[in-house]
Structure to design on (172 residues):
């Protein structure tokens, strides 16, 4: 198979009409994964705040400047290294059984995961949360920032079953 054939927008693996099981319940599970991830980021933020507080005491207040960038830094690092990791999913996504993939089936890498997060927060901030309604009209239940960077959220269990089925040899 040529490289051009692998990178088509209409990759047969992610065809919502041929494989609707990949998108079953994704909207609800994505919302719940977001809540779980917000809780985890808050816990990490609390731990990082204590570290910066103690560091500020040691440096006579100089390190307290880090409080200004602490929340976005913790959130971006969390997303970059979990969503951009081996599982292509944050802990919340893994708990809900979903993962983010590129339109051609590849896994997300850390830089793209960080860009994905920045675009999400920018679109929700600038265009209001009503932009999330795009998922109700998208064939793959994608949000606006997913469409911009070419990603798709899928059911990880259904994807594993489908990839296993595709990988099996075909008897002639």
């Amino acid at each position: 198979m040529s490289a051009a054939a692998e990178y088509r927008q209409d990759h047969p693996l992610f065809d919502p009409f041929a494989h609707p099981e990949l998108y079953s319940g994704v909207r609800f599970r994505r919302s719940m994964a977001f809540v779980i991830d917000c809780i985890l980021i808050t816990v990490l933020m609390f731990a990082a705040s204590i570290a910066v507080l103690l560091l500020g005491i040691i440096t006579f207040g100089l390190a307290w400047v880090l409080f200004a960038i602490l929340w976005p830094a913790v959130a971006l690092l969390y997303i970059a290294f979990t969503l951009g990791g081996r599982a292509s999913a944050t802990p919340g996504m893994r708990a809900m059984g979903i993962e983010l993939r590129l339109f051609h089936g590849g896994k997300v890498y850390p830089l793209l995961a960080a860009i994905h997060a920045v675009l999400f927060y920018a679109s929700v901030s600038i265009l209001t949360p009503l932009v999330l309604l795009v998922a109700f009209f998208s064939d793959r239940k994608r949000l606006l920032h997913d469409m911009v960077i070419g990603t798709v959220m899928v059911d990880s269990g259904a994807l594993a079953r489908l990839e296993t089925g595709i990988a099996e040899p075909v008897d002639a």
Observations:
- The radius of gyration is 19 Å.
- Residues 1-8, 167-172 have pLDDT under 50 and may be disordered.
- The longest helix spans residues 26-58.
- Residues 11-163 form one domain.
